[in-house]
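ugh ok so i messed up the first submission bc i forgot one of the chains. this is the corrected input, ALL of the components this time, i swear. 435 residues overall. if the numbers dont match what u have on ur side tell me asap before i send this to the collaborators (the ones from the other lab, u know who)
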Amino acid sequence: MNSFLVKLKPVLWLLLALPNLVSAFGEGSVDVEVRADIHSSMQMQWQRIEADDFRYQDMKNRLNLDSGWVLLPYGLYAELQTNDARRLISLRVNHLVSTNKRDTIGVDSIFISHNGEKPITATKDLPILSVEDRGLLKTHTFLFVIKTNPTQKPGQYLANFNFISNTLP
Amino acid sequence: MRILIFLLLLPLSAYAGMMSFSVSPSIVKFETVQGGIKAFDLSFFNQGENAIHVDVKLMDLRLDAKGVPIISELSKNKRQWARFVSLNKTKFIVEARKYEKIHVTLNTPRGRVGGGYFAIVFNTTAPKSSKKSKHKQNLMTIGGQLPALFIGEVSRTGKRKAQIIKSAINKAPYTKDKPLKMRFVLKNTGTTHVNVSGDVLLRYNNKVIGRLMLESGSGLILPQGERYFVASWDKFAKYSNKTIKAEARFSYQGGRANKKITFKIP
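and heres the new structure output, hopefully the right one now
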């Protein structure tokens, strides 16, 4: 009986110690297969900023506008983040349309100041998230400037902005 | 003009919001047969906390030289198939955390060969401001646009061919921050799309001194489209005042394109 127990002892010891030995050898000794589906996602938040907002004031102070240029008394603040390496986002500005829908101010008269930079034409979509920005939280502040001309009529105008999303095929 | 400023100042209201939505799948690659009917399902998922108004449009699809999709109005171009597509719904509202399925049916035109492309664009209108404006009109609207891209081909009818139409090296001086860059423009002269990959082999005194990958994303080029490929070389300093021969080699399913250029590093 004693000899049987003596023989059994190393076998039991090995059986008990095996799980610990496996983990002690580190990751390389265990094959673990993990599968995960990560879906493409895009988060966007925006906020209209008013003329008394500190972001508006900060950006406005960086601009040096000549006469004939009118800064709209509101701007747009946007936060964007994506996990998709093929995602592109741009900002599109449409014509300003009067609320009675009779008059327009063409997009060629509208300029965008992006994060306080010199205003650029709004006729082209403005890229605000590129493939290099994957995973980063991007923040943008936009102010809108109108190049005035005598054909523009006073009135209440509706501004329409679009965030254009694209996926690289 | 002063009047204009005052009037624009009048109707301001605080506006804040967010949009979170997805369209799945965002890219559909398919094969079809002449005269055949092909059906697809797209899912629009509103992941946000507010209802979204959605307006779906069929549009043309092209790619620019960097591979960025250009979505434009419907045309009668023979490679644009949007006019052969029908949708089961084009305007709907998706409540928060809900999804909507859209059935897409393509009636593949008879007598067509090669590739065909279109985009289904989801234009969304942002939820209204939580704060009520004192004025009836809300003078600012914000929307989103997300396309699903369709890249198709009539099976075994497309001709695949690509040609290198331009090659250039950026101007010296070169530095670590501004390395030597080789640029190539490839044009798809075939009748269907190709996925191109390539590299550049650098030789000095007939000995290979380096191999650089030509980068341009997936390398997809639609028929009659062009695409830039760029390779950067940061070990140029070692070969100052020496003449280097570079051979760009592109390959795609069913073909190859090569171009040799010689340049001297200042």
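quick check: The longest strand of chain B covers residues 140-154. that seems consistent at least. The mean pLDDT of chain B is 87.
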